[in-house]
Amino acid sequence: MELYHYLLPLPSGYFGVSSVLYDLGGLVVVYGPAGGAWHINIEDEPRWYRNKATVLGAGLLEMDVILGKDPAFVERIATVANDLKRCFVAIVGTPVSSIIGVDLKGLAKAVEKRVGVPVLCINTTGAETYLEGAERAFLALAKTFMQPPTQKIQKGINILGAIHLDMGNPSHLKPLFSLIQEAGWEVVSCWSMGSRVEEIKRAACASLNLVIGRSGLKLAAFMYENYGIPYIIGLPVGEKMGKELVQLLAGKQTTLSKKEGKKKAVIIGEPVIGYSLKRCLQAEFGLKAQVISILPFDALFAENKGCIGSLLERDEGDVYTTSEAEIAALINQPEINLIVADPCYERLIKGHKHFIPLPHTAMSARFYWEMDYEYIGRVGGEYLKKQLEVVR
To answer: Buried (b) or exposed (e) across 101-134, using 16+ Cβ within 10 A?
Structure first.
């Protein structure tokens, strides 16, 4: 069992489901006790303060669980969904539903008969990571809403893996949209920040997918297997990587040259963002860099069918761990000069290390949501350059 003294454990599966579904105009019902959605909305979902409520708790009392008052539960969900005119309902599992063996699929079918919209059943247990929850939610969306393409959009692209737990405020994606559009491409859908179900429905019309988060990899494989859409993995950080992505969009393979440097950096966080930052630090600033990923990253470097290009490069020193003790040991090695990570990780530093804050909502929740930082495209490179001027 891992011990946490300075950090918090990462969100579990149903938090990942909420992150995927929140912006899509549906109703997400977390099967748990009264206040079951409180921690999602208040702590991990900054969008809750600005929009209509999307994630609700089932409001179960102890006697509801003991007596099995499923008809009343179904009626409550149907009433709320119909009153709010939501375009879908999602029933999401928790430790409560897992322990008492709730038939979530049966409940979903019962609710669907009472509402005129699709009902998704996402059987999380609370024991899995937010990555697994997000993956299941993406696949449930694709299987429920995606429609065969009536006509392909030759330069149409889907952005996959855009969840707020990894990407932060949706405003950070604006440089990516601008870069894609300047290259002559149309963003068909973004899974899922900022998109609507109508965009999800027509996603199969795109001719290419761009995976910008680990949570979008299984969805990319599904869309390749079912609709033949190939994909690229990576996030352009800095001007050079932006140009490299444009080349990949044009079907050309390029290689960024690396500058030799003595200073060594460690990047902690989500692996696609982490490896993209690493490549920028090496190519534009001459830093040696190591990735400490808090999510599994092996699948990003496997022989994935349908993957036609990647901005990511793996080295032997890169590791996957969620252990606070192991992360602390790695970043406090004497040869480490620079750390790029969520501000929470600064608590683990002993001695003098230069720290560049890059918030990760899955770690610090809403606390740094409005912080002034960037990590994509030219503005991301400028942010890193400004922070690195202190080191030089």
So the answer is: ebebeebbebbbeebebbbbbbbbbbeebbbbbb
Question: What residue segments make up the domains of the chain, in order of their start?
Answer: 13-144, 147-249, 264-388
Listed residue (377, 375, 374, 376) closest to 243, CA to CA: 377
Phi, psi (deg, nearest 5) at residue 244 = -65, -40
Mean pLDDT, rounded, of the chain:
89
pLDDT at 94: 84
Please tell me if the domain spanning 13-144 has the same topology as the one spanning 147-249.
Answer: yes
Q: How far apart are CA 152 and CA 169, in angstroms?
A: 31
pLDDT one-digit tens code per residue, 53-107: 576 665 555 555 555 567 777 888 888 888 888 899 999 988 877 877 888 899 8
Cβ neighbours of residue 286 closer than 8 Å, sequence gap 6 or more: 258, 259, 260, 261, 263
What global pTM score does this model have?
Answer: 0.93
CATH of domain 147-249: 3.40.50.1980
| 192 vs 140: CA distance, rounded Å | 13
Token reading at 352: 């003098």
Tens digit of each residue's pLDDT (9 = 90 or more) over 257-298: 666 677 899 999 999 999 999 999 999 999 999 999 999 999
13-144: CATH number: 3.40.50.1980
